[in-house]
Write a structure and sequence with these properties.
- The protein is 47% helix and 13% strand.
- It has a single domain, classed as Rossmann fold.
- The chain is of the alpha/beta class.
- The radius of gyration is 17 Å and the shape is globular.
- A six-stranded parallel beta sheet has the order 3-2-1-4-5-6, sandwiched between helices.
- The protein has seven helices and six strands.
- The two termini are 26 Å apart.
- It comes from Paragemmobacter aquarius.
- Belongs to the short-chain dehydrogenases/reductases (SDR) family.
- Pfam families: adh_short.
- One of its GO terms (cellular component) is membrane.
- This is Oxidoreductase.
């Protein structure tokens, strides 16, 4: 393990939307970013955008095409981060599964299971392996995104799994107030992402906030 003064960020769910925008902005600000997503093409496009910017002092992207529900792969990735850098300054968890909208009486159990595997179980399995890395940093920070849909009609699978995710995140947040790492929860502005398009296909996307602008706002807020 080599000591480093570089700032290291792990972004889970980094191939598109807000996760991709935050990974891009972190890299452009000089961070070393480990970008995790299932979509290889999305990660490569992210890398291309960072390289095309050609900003002096820009950081590097380490592309990690894997599914956050693969617990063995994620444990191995965290071990690799420890062996390479010895710490993690920032974890941004934006990976999410947006199940199709459905009445509660017509929920597809496969969508239900995938929602909980991605939105809830993966969060619960990642916190124990990421927390030690954050503790090795001077001000390790974890950032999660809330999207409260509990009780909203047709949002049964998504709303329940996000509520379960927030339950464990807010417990972790309360437990670490005095001892760290810092755990933050933000509710982003509505953005024209693929996830939102599945929920609101007919809305006017021109009035929504650009993910890059929202990423800049959030990064400024947490620093």
């Amino acid at each position: 393990m080599a000591e480093t003064t570089a700032r290291i960020a792990l972004v889970t769910g980094a191939s598109r939307g807000l996760g991709a925008a935050m990974a891009e902005q972190l890299a452009l600000r000089g961070w070393q970013v480990v970008a995790v997503a299932r979509t290889v093409g999305g990660l490569e496009e992210l890398d291309d955008r960072v390289k095309a910017a050609r900003l002096p002092g820009a950081g590097n992207l380490t592309l990690a095409p894997m599914d956050v529900t693969n617990e063995d792969a994620m444990r191995h990735l965290c071990l690799s981060i420890h062996q390479r850098w010895g710490k993690l300054d920032l974890w941004i968890h934006s990976a999410v599964h947006a199940a199709p909208l459905s009445p509660a009486g017509s929920i597809d159990i496969k969508d239900w299971d995938k929602s909980f595997a991605t939105n809830a179980r993966a969060t619960g399995s990642l916190i124990p392996v990421v927390e030690p890395l954050l503790r090795f940093a001077p001000a390790g920070t974890a950032l999660f995104f809330d999207d409260p849909r509990t009780g909203v009609k047709f949002f049964g699978s998504y709303g329940a799994s996000k509520a379960a995710q927030m339950a464990v995140v807010r417990s972790w947040q309360a437990e670490t107030v005095k001892v760290g790492p810092r755990v933050l929860v933000e509710t982003p502005a509505p953005m024209p992402t693929a996830t939102r398009a599945r929920f609101f296909p007919g809305e006017d996307r021109s009035v929504l906030t650009d993910p890059r602008a929202e990423a800049l706002r959030l990064l400024d807020a947490i620093n």
